[in-house]
Structures are given as C-alpha cells and as structure tokens.
C-alpha cells in the first residue's frame, strides 16, 4: 500500500470549499483551514468563513493518486519546490488545527522572516507549543511555519506567555 502524505493543492480563485467538497465525495481526506472574518458592505456587516490560506487546501493521498485528484473541477496543480511535490508533515497540520480550535486571532504571512529566538508558550490556550517569536508592529507574534506552501501562521501571544528556549 502506498504511503499517504498531506499534499498541498492549489485551486482556482475562491474555489477552495467546492474543491474540498468534491474531493471528500471521492473519499479523500481533506483539510481546509477556515477562519471567520467580519466583512463590510455598503449596507451591512456580516461574518463570513474564508480559507486561511487563499487558494490552498491539503489533501491526504498517495503520490500515485495525485493525477486523479487533479481531475476535480477547480483543482489547478499540486505545489512543487525544486521539482518535488510539497508535503506538509502531520504535526504541522495538527498545529494549524490546534491554533484554529483556540479561536485566537490569526494572520498569515508569506514573507521571508529572519530566524528569531525559539520560544515555547508557557500559558494560555496554546501552552506547550514551541516555535519562533518575532516582533511586528510592536506586538509579539508566535510563528508556526508551514514550509510546504511557504506560509507562516502568526499568532499574537502576550509576552508573559513566551519563554525563550535554549
């Protein structure tokens, strides 16, 4: 039996939910991280669900099944780096799920970040997580890197909950 990995699927613009639904209907395990945000229209405000990573979703499948997965309408391609399909580790998927479950405010950032101090969270909903701390706009953020799609999750964590690890 072929090894199952989390591959990163790029979709057409704003088609993440439909593609995820179609892949689930084919029996595939799909992870589409969603966040809620307030949208302002000229006549009203409304909370809407949107993909955490625009245009991306994660599919757990084998390398031999990638072509079949791409046959779903709205699927564009699998993300590649240096000719190899990007694979996201299970612990990175679990980290994203854990952060989403806490309900903390999240920003995504795909800029290159100079390596900072390694920190562990010593209190609050994310206690025990280890990662990197950066300062942006005079706030401390805890970074979870998702190298498979060159994205970083930045979670605002009060300084009192961060402890530098050695």
UniProtKB/TrEMBL annotation:
Gene3D superfamilies in the record: NusG, N-terminal domain
Organism for this UniProt entry: Belliella marina
InterPro entries: NGN-like_dom, NGN_dom_sf, NusG-like
Signal peptide positions on this chain: none
Domain NusG-like N-terminal: from-to ranges: 3-100
One Pfam family per UniProt: NusG
TM region positions: none
The protein's name in its UniProt record: UpxY family transcription antiterminator
UniProt entry keywords in alphabetical sequence: Transcription, Transcription antitermination, Transcription regulation
């Amino acid at each position: 039996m072929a090894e199952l990995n989390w591959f990163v699927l790029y979709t057409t613009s704003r088609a993440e939910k439909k593609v995820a639904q179609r892949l689930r209907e084919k029996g595939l395990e799909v992870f589409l991280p969603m966040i809620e945000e307030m949208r302002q229209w000229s006549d009203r405000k409304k909370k809407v669900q949107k993909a955490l990573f625009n245009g991306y979703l994660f599919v757990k499948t084998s390398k031999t099944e990638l072509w079949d997965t791409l046959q779903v309408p709205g699927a564009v391609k699998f993300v590649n780096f240096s000719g190899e399909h990007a694979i996201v580790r299970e612990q990175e998927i679990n980290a994203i799920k854990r952060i989403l479950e806490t309900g903390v405010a999240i920003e995504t950032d795909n800029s290159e970040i100079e390596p900072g101090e390694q920190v562990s969270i010593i209190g609050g909903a994310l206690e025990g997580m280890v990662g990197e701390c950066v300062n942006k706009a005079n706030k401390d953020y805890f970074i979870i890197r998702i190298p498979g799609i060159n994205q970083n999750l930045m979670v605002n964590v009060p300084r009192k909950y961060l402890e530098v690890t050695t």
